[in-house]
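new request in #modeling-help
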Amino acid sequence: MKKIEAVIRHHKLDELKTALVKAGFHGMTVTEVRGFGRQKGHKETYRGAEYNVDFVPKIKIEITCADAAATQIIDIIVTVARSGQVGDGKIFVSDLSQVIRIRTGETGDAAL
Amino acid sequence: MFRILESRAAVLGACWIILGLVLTSTLWAQEPPALATPAEPAAPAAALNETPPATPAVPHLAGTYDTGSIAWLLVSAALVFFMMPGLALFYGGMVRAKNLLNMFMCVMVCVPLVCVQWIAYGYNLAFAVPSAISVDAGKNDGTKFSYLGWDPGLLFFKSFSEVTPVDGANSYGKIVTSGDTTGAAPTGVPELLFAMFQMMFAIITPALIVGAIAERVKFGAWCLFVVLWATFIYDPVAHWVWNVNGWLFQKGVLDFAGGTVVHLLAGVSALALILILPKRRGYPSSQFLPHSIGWSLMGAGMLMVGWFGFNAGSAIANGKDYLPTAGAVAVMAFAATAIAGSAAGGSWILAEWLVAGKPTSLGLGSGIVAGLVVITPCAGHVSPGSALIIGLIGGVACFFAVQAKQIIKYDDSLDVVGVHGAGGALGALLVGWFAVRPVTGGGSQLSLQVQGVVATGVFAFVGTLILGLLIHKTIGFTVDESTEEEGLDVKIHGEAAYRLV
């Protein structure tokens, strides 16, 4: 089982969710995060004083899937979230040791 | 619960409150001899068949009630009170989220503190006509310059509740007279209403100061400071500038609604405090950004609405040429307020656009407030055209005054010195030039204004330095490091303004 975490731009979320649901992947967890990489922050001004704000708001999506489905999900994310500009984000893939559905107690692939 | 007793400030405050309650009870326990028997009940019955005298024989009801002015002043007092939550929001949005409630508290706690102080003895010191400290004015006609008032009957507003023996009327209806060097006239407004209107000013003035020392002040120490400052700084200066016998009023210094008494005093006192108290930890290297400009803009809007009462209601405090309270001068003041506030909002963002590159919403709100500050001492004295010029100048001037903070590097958290201090001083000087009533502006009036600004400014600065050091060196004025880092809301008040769930 794999866990796919993707940090993407805010406005790409709706499009990505629709694409994933259409491809048959019906669950995900979304958090609002801030971060920076090569994309620099921006300047804000309050009463004439300038402030450098380094952290950029992003969305992080977490999806769990069977090993075979990982490539398809990654392709969908890359297609939807890529704009070609600095700041498109990153995808992190890790191995999951266990998944449990709380309601039924199912484990493993049945819980995905 | 008993942790509250560990704070020495809280203990001192509690002692003060208990002392005040004891004093009140002893005063109320005394029976004024006049209440014992009504005088001559037969006389009014006999008078029914005669023509009533043309002027009332009872001195305290001299003149009749001006119901229009009473109505307007009632609304004005409520409008000035409305500026308190407006100020709380204006300041609250500019601090970090972890300190929002503390900012609200420091502003709004002035309501109970100053209200009690005002009724107990504050109004007495400021507006009592008999003088406690006065010197001969040197005019060879016996006029005196008064520095402080005192009337024992005004303690805890006792005299407002007495029933006069002669006609059984309540003295809370007693009409206040408004006077100046040319004479006095009854205003048609009950003195209790005047006292309530002035109370709103007394409440908001110390609340302005806390913006400069935001996010690091100990709550108990702040409460103690408010009471002491109101007593030793605000009440004397209000006496000097607005009391009929006050020395600056008698000299002819103009201050329509509080450029010196409110804004300059607050700004200069804020400066004194930020010079002796430590900066916020991490300032200026760490960036402290406003957490909710929306709140601040809402607050600025509320302040502007309230300011119409602040300025246009002040026709009552300015002498007999300004009556009726709801009259031509109030209209002048209203117009000046609207024009200057609006113009300054525009000139601030224009300056900002040119200098910093972007016009900001916080700049618009601040510019409007700055314009209102600058027009406050001028409001009933200047023409609408002059108000426009004053507003345009004020917006730009205060914008640059606020930039000074970055050069001098003092930690005036919410720009109280730049907006209220500089704006109040500027307005108090500009009125010397632009005044059209009761005197025409020019060199001589300008020099009088300079005297007024210097006198009140120096007094407030030195006085606040003393009060601030007194408190800081005894019980400590600022919080410790862990409180400041975790946030004052959670550590001082045990509350959080925002929750995730």
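bot summary: Strands of chain B lie at 131-136, 144-149, 175-180, 183-190.
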